[in-house]
Write a structure and sequence with these properties.
alpha/beta; 6-stranded mixed β-sheet; Cytidine Deaminase, domain 2; 21 strands; about 525 residues; Rossmann fold
């Protein structure tokens, strides 16, 4: 190794690496701030502008895009024609490239940064050099990740070797990194499009692997978790696990469902999820009360479930959980020291701390199908639920509160979804049936199994009732008020059925299918 080029935005560990190179008599080329840092540390550096004989220009936009740089990265020592051309042009080989890119992701996520400022953080020379070096990785070592500096230092000292396999791995890391970088830029620029309703013709997705999992939904399936760039702090991706076993694939999907549902409420709330469906949810004056009511909806299904709170977990609530049920995951914005001490006695329980807010961020929802990908806007809960009265009787104040509560829960229940609620708690939940009437029957049966009465409850349906039989069965069960989107061609007869049974009914005008 005779010559290295170093140009980094993130300068972590770069001085130690440069010193190791200097000790090994490797000539260092560098640019701008990196060159200044190395020289201030007493490390001899040749400025790229001096090396190329071409000054930096365009406010630093143009500095490494030069034949002496790219010829040095792309030239093959074992090919006489390459060496002849390089010699004729005065190009010398570069054996090592250490580059990380302008912090575009940070700039694009900064709410204070203008569009123009973000665009200036789009690196051009860096990706070009990395791709040249990675293509020629048989002769040039490309380093894009500071985590690989240690390997390189050990190789410089003769403690290990950079094998052909390691070179290929480093090259693969470069192309993955530049692809990720380009994807971020494409998504950012697409978001700045004047046509906010347009989906891009080519969808660039870039996710970073956080960890592998033991297996997927089933033991024969491999699985890993990848984080989306710019993920909200109030997301399962940003959760901090303070105790417990590693999260499984199913834990992650259920925890996400529980978190998204409980975040829909401003009041102290608890949501218990099992197999991607809420099996109990409640509001309370405190989370202990909310938990007790949510658990009572369906104690059988709550076994082995995911419990989410939108308030700090206290010792009293933690004790109630451990007394009542087996739980896989507990989610909360904070865990008191007393609650943590109590839960530590059950070390297998995963405890996640997640920032809670009611700001539901817009974004895209992806669904894989055979041979393709479905993309849609996220179904963000309404900040304020708009209710249109369609029945003769208006809901009483208590009914209206329960209607809005049940409606928010129904959005997170698999379709067809029916939710019975009373006094800020679920009484019965029917999920995932092919018939809406069957979902109602399941909800009634679940309530009865839990020793709860449906009489005097309100009912939420995630979609319209296609026939009046849904209202007839609701009346028979004892429902007093109904919330649904409306929009059926048979709305008049459904409304008539509600009036016949003295049921207050409101339309929201928004459907919440969840498949």
């Amino acid at each position: 190794m005779k010559r290295a080029l170093i140009s980094v935005s993130d300068k972590t560990g770069i001085i130690d690496l440069a010193r190791a190179l200097t000790t090994a008599c490797v000539e260092i080329l560098s640019t701008g701030g990196t060159a200044a840092l190395l020289m201030s540390a007493g490390i001899p550096v040749i400025d790229v502008a001096t090396y190329t004989g071409f000054p930096e220009m365009l406010d630093g936009r143009l500095k490494t895009l030069h034949p002496r740089i790219h010829g040095g990265l792309l030239g093959r020592p074992n090919r006489p024609s390459d060496q002849k051309a390089m010699h004729a042009a005065g190009i010398e080989g570069i054996d090592l490239l250490i580059v990380n890119l302008y912090p575009f992701e940070r700039a694009s996520r900064d709410p204070q940064a203008s569009f123009e400022a973000a665009v200036e953080q789009i690196d051009i020379g860096g990706p070009a050099m990395l791709r040249s070096a990675a293509k020629n990785h048989s002769y040039v070592i490309p380093i894009v990740d500071s985590a690989d500096y240690g390997l390189l230092i050990r190789a410089i000292r003769g403690e290990t070797t950079i094998s052909p396999e390691i070179r290929r791995r480093l090259a693969a890391k470069v192309f993955a990194h530049t692809s990720h970088y380009d994807g971020l830029i494409a998504r950012y620029l697409s978001g700045e499009s004047e046509d906010e309703d347009a989906f891009p013709d080519t969808l660039q997705l870039s996710f970073t692997k956080r960890f592998s999992m033991r297996y997927g939904e089933n033991p024969h399936q491999r699985a890993a978790f990848y984080e989306e760039p710019g993920a909200s702090v109030a997301s399962i991706a940003q959760a901090t696990k303070i105790q417990g076993k590693e999260l499984s694939f199913n834990n992650m999907t259920d925890a996400d469902a529980a978190l998204e549902c409980v975040r829909a409420f401003a009041e102290p709330a608890c949501v218990i999820v099992k197999h991607a469906n809420p099996c109990g949810a409640a509001l309370g004056t405190n989370i202990r009360e909310a938990y007790e009511q949510a658990y009572a909806t369906d104690p059988t299904s709550a076994f082995g479930g995911i419990i989410a709170f939108n308030r700090p977990l206290d010792e009293e609530t933690a004790s109630a959980i451990l007394t009542k049920q087996f739980v896989e995951v507990i989610i909360s914005p904070e865990v008191s020291s007393e609650a943590a001490r109590l839960l530590s006695g059950k070390p297998n329980i995963r405890v996640l701390v997640v920032t809670m807010d009611q700001i539901m961020h817009k974004g895209l929802d992806y669904r894989r199908v055979s041979g393709g990908l479905l993309v849609q806007d996220r179904d963000i809960p309404e900040t304020e639920v708009t209710l249109t009265l369609v029945s003769q009787r208006a809901p009483r104040a208590s009914e209206q509160r329960d209607l809005v509560f049940a409606w928010r829960i129904a959005q997170f229940v698999k379709s067809n979804a029916i939710v019975f609620a009373r006094d800020g708690r679920t009484i019965g939940i029917g999920a995932g049936q092919m018939s809406r009437v069957d979902s109602a029957r399941v909800a009634v049966w679940k309530a009865q199994e839990a020793g709860l009465s449906v009489t005097g409850t309100v009912m939420a349906s995630d979609a319209y009732f296609p026939f009046r039989d849904g209202l007839d069965s609701a009346a028979k069960a004892g429902v007093t008020a109904v919330i649904q989107p409306g929009g059926s061609v048979r709305d008049p007869e459904v409304i008539a059925a509600a009036c016949e049974h003295d049921i207050a009914m409101v339309f929201t005008g928004r459907r919440h299918f969840r498949h």
